[in-house]
Amino acid sequence: VSSIGQSLAAIVGASNVFEGAGIEERYRVDIMAKYVSTPGFVVRPGSTEEVAAVVKLAAQANLSITPLGGRTGVVGGGTAKDGAIVLSLERMNKVLEVDAASMTMTVEAGATLQATHESAEANGLFMPLDLGARGSATIGGNIATNAGGNRVLRWGMMRDMVLGLEAVLANGSVVSSLTKALKDNAGYNWKHLFIGSEGTLGVITRAVLRLRPLPVSSQTALVAMSSFETATALLRKMEAALGGRLSSFELMWSDFYDFSSEAQLAKRARPLPCGHALYALMESLGSEVAHDADLFAQTLEQAMSEGLASDVVIAQSDRERDNLWAVRDDLTEVLRPLRPLIAYDVSMALGDMPRFREETRAQILERFPQATTLYYGHAGDGNLHLVVGAGTGKDQTTEVDRMVYRVVEKYRGSVSGEHGIGKGKREYIGLTRSAQELALMQAIKTALDPHNLMNPGKVLP
Amino acid sequence: VSSIGQSLAAIVGASNVFEGAGIEERYRVDIMAKYVSTPGFVVRPGSTEEVAAVVKLAAQANLSITPLGGRTGVVGGGTAKDGAIVLSLERMNKVLEVDAASMTMTVEAGATLQATHESAEANGLFMPLDLGARGSATIGGNIATNAGGNRVLRWGMMRDMVLGLEAVLANGSVVSSLTKALKDNAGYNWKHLFIGSEGTLGVITRAVLRLRPLPVSSQTALVAMSSFETATALLRKMEAALGGRLSSFELMWSDFYDFSSEAQLAKRARPLPCGHALYALMESLGSEVAHDADLFAQTLEQAMSEGLASDVVIAQSDRERDNLWAVRDDLTEVLRPLRPLIAYDVSMALGDMPRFREETRAQILERFPQATTLYYGHAGDGNLHLVVGAGTGKDQTTEVDRMVYRVVEKYRGSVSGEHGIGKGKREYIGLTRSAQELALMQAIKTALDPHNLMNPGKVLP
Predict the structure, then answer these.
(1) How would DSSP label each residue in B142-180?
(2) How far is B262 from chain A (nearest CA, A)?
(3) What is the SS3 assignment for A11?
(4) Which of B105, B79, B73 lies closest to B25, judged by CA?
(5) A181 CA: distance to closest CA in chain B (Å)
(6) Hey, is A123 helix, strand or coil?
(7) Of A167, A371, A398, B299, which residue is most buried, by most CB within 10 angstroms?
(8) What secondary structure does DSSP assign to A379-425, as a single string?
(9) CA separation for the pair A227, A225 (Å, rounded)
């Protein structure tokens, strides 16, 4: 054990420090096996004070720190520098309090998203953020990456659920504002700077989350549409008619829908026939079981009669609902044949999506005629996913990246609507962020972390 | 005309520069006649480029800049240093675009809040932020102060409506991200740093706002309650039962309600009798005219039968609605007898409000037995207003401030939930922001504005 290892052990206990060859694979290789490194130390603090002590020690030893949550990121944000420190929040995993009167929850950064769901529901409350990795993803990671998911349309991103925040800065100081109030206009809102900063400004240790009343009614439908214009009009119609109840509007172009439902045929029947231009999976969450179901069905019926919807299936049971969602979400097996696949999470104005799709698709297929391109996304919030696979090898990733991001640049969108920049998109951030914006971000980074000790090599170019 | 005046005129035109004695009173004295200064220049640029040129010139001349919006701030945030530059956004007052498909609006900073309401409604859309000063308050000022108002419970503060932002930094560079997408996770979200920074980090020039579907149904009720616990329970019941439609829950303690309704008796009958402990004014906005009205009435009826509400009046017409709101909002004449009054906009966890009220009230009345204290607030979002008047003179402001803010500190609330810090609360920000938080804010300020040229003497102590 090195002297640094001993000093770390003195802070967090010997059983919570791993060093060199004693470091397990999960701290060295990311979940997609895409980003690999050889950290010098893994340390698992049990409290904010221990985090602060580790950060101070790291600064003295001139070792950088990479905070690690539930290992569900896809852009290499949790990959440490060789020889540096991985700071895992896995032991700080408690839901500390649910305050039903204030409708808030206080949590440690290492609590899983699912743990917050369960604690909220046990108190008749609701934590709206949801995503497939809920069982492993941690609140600290969700905050550090400003996680999105399928309900951003109604409740916003992780950013919109964080009332209070505590973080340890690069100099070891603890900034803490664990407020339960929705409103605080006393000075700069530093909280929002840390949300989405991917561990490069400090280590998030605790948070106060805003909860909502637990919805009692839930409706889910899959709808086929004849054009992007009808899809947009249907989205606006549903939002207006449901008076705030619409919580998801997941758009799937026919390429995605046909491919995904085809791949799942052994498991489940296709919920709607192929042949339509677009499909939308929509969810409404409300407070009145019978009335909400009637309103949802009537609105969709009206949409059919107005030509906004070409075909509709409404889930009549939890099983049917899960089957509808599976076409959109149960993608691991579906996408396997396309490996090595290239995935995007760009965002842009809703109205620019069709041209973005046409232009990227034409360029990719001209260069790689055998490629498969699948387009889908959250639509309601401007976030579009694109998967490119088969016919493009791993070596072509950079070429496809450039094609796709150039078109995003043209439409003044963002190279990341959801997953963040991490290591993987650093070279492209300048396509959709101006030199002035990047200079501003760098000035903030330098002011808060002058020696570049917090998760170096991420986010900024 | 000085040489600086000439240089300013070369940028914005001679008719848009005022100097020395030629400066009108509205640029020297704030709307409450509380903050007075003698600026050297007033300049009214017509474009972002002109703002940038003015900022660069000011930096060369070592003159500070105070951006000025609609002059509706109450904490002196728009008061320039003597001899320095007031940069008024009044000429940049256009709504540049309403994009109905993306449900966004692009505006110049000097557009009034009311202009955004009208442009949105003309397109069948809704800008949810609302406050009494809507006719003069500008979007730039609303962003710079992160304005709140009566609908934060449902749609959040100004921060939650800003998708894209453009600002001119102290070094004259223009940072611009006028995106229409809800999601952008590419790098630090600098936008949120400028929102609520009160002109101390740069000049906000343009913004893209998120709009919502225009609600078609509206219900308003005034409800009397027997205790704070029943008020909290009623809030939670209404939120849950209305499934997201509850847009306001304005709480009034009996001291406020009795005083306000008494003062308005010449104009309108008291909507509910005095004698109850608390009153709440609530608003629900939805999409179904008949059903929403039934649900609202039935839920309140049920609340009565459960003892959560002691008495209820539901507005049956626009006139009745306006009369109910007047008790809460039409305060200019009501509060006149209390001048010189002292007003607070603190925030805290909902559950701490009763003890905050008891403790501050006891302290104030012990020291100033003739004083009137009125408590009211947005409640749903943790924001509490307190007005203290009569029996406390202007000279006692500091003494009352200290009493009130010490109790806010005890309950770990905020000295400002809504109005900001400006000049008026600088000495108190340290009571509810830690030394570490203030050091972090100062580091950000220094990084972005090393020569302290942007609205100096505001926000930070």
Answers:
(1) HHHTT--BTTHHHH--GGGGEEEEEEEETTSPEEEE---
(2) 30
(3) helix
(4) B79
(5) 5
(6) coil
(7) A167
(8) -TTSEEEEEEESSS-GGGHHHHHHHHHHHHHHTT-BSBSSS--TTTT
(9) 6
* Token output for A302: 């009206």
Return d(Cα A199, Cα A142) in angstroms, integer.
11
pLDDT band of residue B394 (cuts 50, 70, 90) is: low
Interface probe, candidates B142, B184, B294, B355, chain A, greatest A C-beta count within 10 A: B184
Mutation pick from B440, B448, B449, B458 vs chain A, by most beta carbons of A within 10 Å, is B440
User: What's the average pLDDT block by block, 10 residues per block, for chain A (461 residues)?
Assistant: 96 98 97 94 98 98 98 96 98 97 96 98 97 96 96 96 98 96 95 98 98 97 98 96 96 98 96 98 97 98 98 97 95 91 94 96 94 92 92 79 96 96 96 97 98 98 91
CB atoms within 10 A of CB B10: 12
Give me the pLDDT at residue B392, please.
66
- Cα distances (angstroms) measured from residue B444 to each of B2, B60, B187, B201: 34, 22, 16, 9
Distance, CA of A106 to CA of A212 (rounded, Å): 14
Residue with tokens 């003159």: B63
User: If DSSP codes are grouped into helix, strand and coil, which group holds residue A341?
Assistant: coil
Structural element, H or E, at residue B289: helix B289-305
pTM above 0.90, yes or no: yes
| pLDDT for B390 | 74
Helix, strand, or coil (residue A138) = strand
Match 């090898």 to its residue by tokens.
A393
Question: For residue A92, what pLDDT is reported?
Answer: 98
Mutate to test the interface with A, among B183, B218, B235 (most CBs of A within 10 A): B183
**Residue that has been written with the tokens 């002691």 in this structure:** B310
- In A19-78, the residues whose Cβ lies within 8 Å of chain B are none
What pLDDT sits at residue B393? 62
pLDDT tens-digit profile of B323-379? Answer: 999 999 999 999 999 988 899 999 999 999 999 999 999 999 999 999 999 999 988
Cβ contact B176–A148 (<8 Å): no
**A460 inside 8 A of chain B by CB:** yes
Residues of chain B contacting residue A179, judged by C-beta atoms under 8 Å apart: 347, 349, 412-414
Query: What's residue A392's pLDDT?
Result: 67
Query: Which residues have C-beta within 8 Å of that of residue B138, sequence separation ≥ 6?
Result: B69, B70, B89, B93, B109, B110, B111, B112, B113
DSSP assignment of A274-286 equals S--SEEEEEEEEE
H/E stretch holding A302 reads helix A289-305
Sequence letter at residue A319: R
- Rg (alpha carbons) of chain A, rounded to whole number: 23
Tokens standing for residue B39: 């600026």
User: Taking the alpha carbons of A67, A68, A73, A79 in that order, is the dihedral positive or negative?
Assistant: positive
Q: Which of A103, A245, A421 minimises the CB distance to B243?
A: A245
The angle that helices A435-448 and B435-448 make with each other, rounded to 10 degrees, is: 140
Q: Which residue of B has its CA nearest to A459?
A: B187
**Closest to B185 (Cβ–Cβ): which among A145, A189, A215?**
A145
Helix (H, G, I), strand (E, B) or coil at A151: coil
Residue A223 is inside which H or E element, if any? strand A217-225
Contact assessment for residue A272 and residue A313, using Cβ atoms and an 8 Å cutoff = yes
Contacts of B125 in chain A (CB under 8 A): none
**Contacts with A, B 430-459, CB within 8 Å:** 432-434, 436-441, 443-448, 459
Q: By CA distance, what is B442's nearest residue in A?
A: A188
- Between positions 100 and 139 of B, the ones with CB within 8 A of A are 100-104
| C-beta atoms of B429 and A215 within 8 A | no
